[in-house]
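DM from R.C. (forwarded with permission)

"hey, sorry to bug you on a friday — could you get me a structure for this? deadline for the figure draft is monday and I only need the backbone to look sensible"
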Amino acid sequence: MLDPTGAEISWVLPTLSGWLKGLQDRQYQLSNWLNKERPPSFWLTGFFNGQGFLTAMKQEVTRQHKAENWSLDQVDVKTEVMRDIVRDNPESGRLDGKSLQGASEGVWIHGLFLEGCQWHHTEKRLEEQTAKDIFYLFPVIHVTCISTAIDPAARGAAGRAKENAMNEKNGYLCPVYKYPKRNDRYLIFRALLKAEPQGNSGQNLSKGVSPPMNWKLKGVALLCQKE
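My reply, with the result:
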């Protein structure tokens, strides 16, 4: 919903019925979290300010590593795609009857949709789109933090930073947007996804184009909602 000046004061949906359903689903997630227990996985679409939710996650992880002298301004988001998929009511994020274990550090998020390619669930990597579907329900993602500080007092920090840099060379920093309309205003964060095909075969890649650039040129992105 936009006010007359164009400022966003609520989530944007094309229909009133969709907006009301979103309101109920968001209330459901927050109410269960408040009155019952912390969800094993969070429906990212259910947060009006997804960036704020992930900042709170970074603060929580930083406190868990207080003994290693982690600070909020020296951590980056680290992602790992799990095998679990919330298939029932993916656009509502409800976990009724789902047996998810959750994360001991960081958070699990679900309910995202992949646009521009498909996901190979066995090898956990991006692959060329073969079906006619525009959107693909994405598995649960474990989102946590990694220290970027090169400090001997932070145990293994240099090794973690080096590992993260190496992963970025072989992975695609996939943007996660709040809406299908893509711009920096609606960018929540970027998830590092495996981009190399099995055996580095380079299938369907243009000459001189790396796998990460291949997916970037095709506009591959994760979306919180399809409308």
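R.C.: lifesaver. The domain at 16-223 is CATH 3.10.490.20 (Hypothetical upf0131 protein ytfp).
me: no worries. The chain has one domain: 16-223.
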